[in-house]
Amino acid sequence: MIINIRPIFLTVGILLTTLGVAMLLPTIADLVVGNEDWEVFAFTGTITTLIGVGLYSGAQGTRELLSTREAFIMTSVAWLVLSLFGAIPYLLSGVVPTFTDAVFESMSAITTTGSTVITGLDNAPPGILLWRGIQQWLGGLGIIVMAVAVLPMLQVGGMQLFKVEAFDTAEKIMPRARQISGSLTLVFIVITLMCILAYLFAGMSFLDATVHGMTTVATGGFSTKDASMGYFDGHLVDVIAIFFMILGSIPFILYVQAYQGRPSKLWRNSQVKAFLTVLGFLTMVAWLMHPGPGPEGDPYLPIVQAAFNVTSIVTGTGYANADYGTWAPGSTTFFFCIMFIGGCAGSTSCGIKIFRFQVMFEAIKQHLSKIFYPNGIFVMRFNGNIIEDQVASAVMNFFAVYFMIFGIIAILLNLTGLDFLTAMSAAGTSISNVGPGLGPLIGPSSTFQELNDPAKWILTAAMLVGRLELFTVLVIFMPRFWRA
Description:
By secondary structure, the chain is mainly α. The protein has helices at about 5-20, 25-35, 40-60, 70-95, 100-110, 125-150, 150-155, 175-200, 205-215, 235-250, 250-260, 265, 270-290, 300-315, 330-340, 355-370, 390-415, 420-430, 440, 455-465, 470-475, 480-484, and strands at about 380, 385.
């Protein structure tokens, strides 16, 4: 089997150059306040940019078309390389003590997971805080483009449902990515700016508003404060976050279509309606679990905190404004279960995703109908279109593999010495790219700093596998993939 690595180098070179140029912003932020970390970002940004330009220049003149096999390799390699180069500032600045912690933090950022090993965020240099936000923002944008341009072509976990017929072959992945990335990026920027302005209006400082604006729309969850969103006292900030977390969890291609004069695509989409319905129902359940108005007697506190934390966990953002694990008996189980759901396909959200639950429901409904009416003909549909059997099969396989990998990760974490609750919630939050776990060690009011190094490396790998929809990474480890 012959694999042409030049188009892979071309793509990775472009992405590394973008990452290196992005380091200019934290460089400026540290320079403004006189923090010496500006040298770290200036050095790392220069090296990253030079390597990126070198890869791009060396691959010039090659064909830009990727085969399906090359697209699988390119996707995994790109996210791994970006996380490794993105880890350098954390290590050189001394904000984390080890290479393991630096890679963990960077992988958590670029995959928009939001788990962190950094403590003392309230007093951290502005460059580091801004860099964490930039990484999540770039990771959110990257996953949108990948979900629309790459995964449907690779037929990963039922994502072929979202294939655009104008680009019907895997060899057109790169031209397609170029055509759609511009409009998606513009929409992403506009929504991010709107979020930043809203946070500024709510009273956040410019740095806080900028970082939270990027991490909210990217549904990443990194904050500038150890207390996360709980630091900002007031319901206005929570409501703004809820609104933009939801916007970030809706397919961004629908925003593009609305801008092009087809707004009905947005409110008629069955996946969006199902997502909002699920959020509403789960918020009501969490509201019933809430302990009440609190010592200040705030009547709005229960519903706002319920809506905020449910939206944060379901969308995979990972913000917290309360220790929801202590709300009521069963609240820990409730929030553990909803972390797997995820938002819509084609958004910055992660997890299993709403459309797969819709397909599973259609498959179950069809099966039950055939039991009662053996001679009947029952057609599965998604968003008004017929679901082919191979798509339903791909979705069912995804569910099976998803929970199999979750179980393996949990067992491995338990073998490293973690207790049952910590191992289970860490496995769930990493593969679903949510952020906080449950329990006193990695709960919403804690960090992952105290975990041992083997556990951190397991979680780092799990974040990558979960973000890239499992099969994109797993298929590379199959001998048949290399022999075909």
